[in-house]
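Lecture 7 notes: from sequence to structure.

We start with a single chain of 136 residues. Read the sequence below before looking at the structure.
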Amino acid sequence: MFSINGVVSIILSVIILFRVCIIFFITPNKILLKDNFLILKRPIDEKIFELKSIESISKIQFQNLRKVIALEGVMGYYGIYQELPYQDRIRMMALKNSNLCQIRFGNEYNLILSIEDLNDFKQKIFIHLTTNKYAT
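Now the structure, written as tokens:
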């Protein structure tokens, strides 16, 4: 028969494996600028945002965020956070909790990503916006 400690160990292992799999599949592993869109490629799908709907891009510190419901760990940070002292809820999809940038969209959708070089990222978006002119 199984001991109670063995059953608890198996259940905890399954929970940890489940969390790691979820974070792996829903955290973006590539960020692309294509045509007029910001594309977050994830192993299971891709999230697509229009560049023209971006209102602002700013640096944000992890310690200024409060977890509402989220998965955190070695594989990344994914979930809903609140920026302190504000009550705005922000979706975070980041591989690490440093070099975070907050992207505010016109539709009141807020997103946090981990970007290595924020200034380079902003410059690429600006160049993309000015060269594409939203031709449809």
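The chain has one domain: 4-132. Keep this in mind for problem set 3.
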